[in-house]
Design a protein that fits this description.
- By secondary structure, the protein is an alpha+beta fold.
- It has a domain of 236 residues: Nucleotidyltransferase, domain 5.
- Helices cover 33% and strands 23% of the residues.
- The protein contains 15 helices and 23 strands.
């Protein structure tokens, strides 16, 4: 009997170990949260050892539930989060700096003013924003007290987990994660000497880049670690978006819209990111356009933790559905700036349209609507660049369980929105990448055959109504932009 595949999904707030059988069906999972640290406003950190503890705990708990051998392990992670550790001791040299962290916003602005944006855009497909790893690593080396000696190892969270799973034998990553560091040339598919020099990063500390699907190494008890992808690219793979034109949105802490654009790297696109989706063992590469939305599900957490409007995130749909509209209220949840297509690290959260008639339900509905509006902003930009319509959007992530959200999304996009039967498509994609490498599945066509829909939502309002609401949303966005600019 074939073994199961376990995906380790090391996310922003916790780690999930997720088991999949040979039919692509989820078997069981284990989950553990780990702490977030906020040493200063706009700074977000993790303790890498706490992440590894969560990996060990969830993996061991899940294995204890299974009565079948493990054929392979796949890793997916929160991408741009920057980890530095000592190769000799295996200990972190600083807390990990999380993708949400904005401490290098002024540095990014200075680099852009100095004329470095064209180089970054051409080689990486990214923008000069503190979201990515390079300025975080530069800060650690210049202001964080981390010494650039021969024992220094840098990696995104996947590299840290892989290092520990293999007992320090493998320091590697895959192209999907490397392409998010702002140090990797996505056309040549190699670390960029020019960018390493720009950010004063020694190339010796960087991990080896290997295909996303292929054996990276073995755990201490001989289980192959055979798949790695950043969380959003893994979700694109888990959604079986294998053809150019296929698109998905993962509604999580933030939301990430990815559009498969095929094997040729497109030119840089204003307002969007170009990224590597994955590289298979046979050298097949898929590129993707990405729109990164920093805050969607996190805005629901704000309603719960910041405003005490709800006691649990699961209550937000019913509260939002208790009113027929927002009474003209728009919430722009730019708590850590705005991502695609605006890329404004100085934007801040804004509520506009308040009157005395506005209550808890209207604010809750405005937060849910903001997720749909932000997604449409990204999809509209992608359609303009790709020169083609998006015929449907595949949805996953925790908030995709919210029927009201997906209906509002279909209304805004004027196309069907299809929810995956498996919400954890990020873990599913990592499992598929690992299983392909070890023969659990033979082709991507076989993988695609396992995908199942869990619900479909079609437009319920005319396009004129959707367009009017989106126009008002963009007026609200204009009022949020540049608020925190220091000069």
């Amino acid at each position: 009997m074939p073994g199961v595949v376990i995906a380790i999904d090391a996310g922003t707030t916790g780690v999930r170990a997720f088991a999949v059988d040979e039919g692509g069906a989820p078997l069981d999972y284990a989950y553990r949260e780990f702490p977030q640290y906020f040493p200063q406003p706009g700074w977000v950190e993790h303790d890498a050892e706490e992440i590894w503890d969560a990996v060990q705990t969830t993996f061991d708990e899940l294995r204890g539930k299974l009565d079948r051998p493990v054929a392979a392990i796949g890793i997916t992670d929160q991408r741009e989060t920057t980890v530095v550790w000592d190769k000799k001791t295996g200990r972190p040299r600083h807390r990990a700096i999380v993708w949400q962290d904005r401490r290098t916003a002024d540095r990014c602005r200075a680099l852009e003013r100095a004329g470095h944006l064209p180089l970054v855009r051409e080689q990486t497909g990214l923008v000069l924003d503190p979201y990515f790893s390079a300025t975080k690593l530069e800060w650690l080396l210049t202001e964080g007290g981390v010494e650039a000696d021969p024992d220094l190892a840098f990696g995104t969270v996947d590299s840290w987990v892989l290092w520990n799973l293999t007992g320090g034998a493998v320091h590697a990553t895959d192209p999907s994660n490397a392409s998010r560091t702002m140090l990797y040339d996505i056309r040549r598919r190699a670390w960029s000497p020019e960018l390493c020099a720009l950010f004063s990063v020694p190339q010796a500390c960087l991990p080896e880049v290997r295909p996303s699907s292929g054996r990276f190494g073995l755990t201490g008890d001989g289980i192959p670690v055979s798949g790695i992808a950043g969380d959003q690219q893994a979700a694109l793979f888990g959604q079986a978006c294998f053809l150019p034109g296929d698109a998905k949105n993962t509604y999580g802490t933030g939301s990430f819209v990815l559009l498969n654009v095929g094997a040729e790297c497109p030119s840089p696109v204003e307002g969007l990111l170009t990224t590597i989706g994955w590289e298979l063992a046979d050298g097949t590469v898929a590129y993707a356009l990405e729109g990164a939305i920093f805050v969607t599900g996190a805005a629901v957490q704000w309603l719960r933790d910041g405003l005490d409007i709800i006691d649990d995130a699961s209550e937000v749909e019913a509260l939002a559905g208790s009113v027929g509209d927002t009474e003209g209220v728009y919430v722009v949840p730019a708590f850590t700036g705005l991502g695609s297509p605006y890329w404004d690290p100085y934007a801040r959260g804004t509520i506009v349209g308040l009157t005395r008639g506005v209550g808890r339900g209207h604010l809750a509905r405005a937060v849910i609507e903001s997720m749909a509006y932000q997604t449409r902003d990204v999809i509209d930009a992608m359609k303009e660049v790709a020169g083609r319509e998006v015929s449907r959007l595949r949805a996953d992530g925790g908030a995709s369980a919210n029927d009201l959200l997906l209906q509002l999304q279909a209304d805004q996009l004027q196309v069907p929105v299809v929810r995956s039967a498996v919400q954890e498509t990020t873990a599913l994609g990592a499992a598929y990448l690992a299983g392909l490498a070890e023969g659990v599945w033979s082709t991507t066509a076989e993988v695609a055959g396992h995908w199942k829909a869990g619900g479909e939502f079609t437009p319920s309002v005319p396009s004129s109504v959707a367009d009017s609401r989106q126009a008002n949303w963009r007026r609200a966005v204009d009022r949020s932009r540049g608020w925190a600019r220091s000069s």
